[in-house]
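ok, trying the design again with the full structure, not the truncated one.
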């Protein structure tokens, strides 16, 4: 990637961050196993998803995300999780929502 961070938009920077976080937990095969998914969610998404303590919750989430049944979460399957959580957060943070109690620590400006 040729673009410097200074010239990237907030959205592009966010996309790079998603890719980097996925690779941090997915290892050299670029696939998440259950332990990696749990660690990623608990370490990287704890403000948006309750920490996973129960294996039943992890099993159900993993089963829902593992669309091809190979017992691993690839990047496209991971993006399903990102899209679902982002959509839910959008509903909470939208200006029309009366119950928006969540504020972003770093407002998006452009």
């Amino acid at each position: 990637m040729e673009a410097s961070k200074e010239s990237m938009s907030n959205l592009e920077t966010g996309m790079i961050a998603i890719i980097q976080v996925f690779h941090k937990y997915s290892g050299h095969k670029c696939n998440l196993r259950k332990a990696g998914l749990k660690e990623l969610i608990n370490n990287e998404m704890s403000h948006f998803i309750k920490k996973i303590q129960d294996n039943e919750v992890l099993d159900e989430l993993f089963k829902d995300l593992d669309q091809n049944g190979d017992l691993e979460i690839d990047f496209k399957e991971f993006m399903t999780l990102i899209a679902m959580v982002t959509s839910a957060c959008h509903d909470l943070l939208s200006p029309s929502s009366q119950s928006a109690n969540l504020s972003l620590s770093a407002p998006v400006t452009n």
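Keeping the full-length input from now on. Confidence is low (pLDDT under 50) at residues 105-110.
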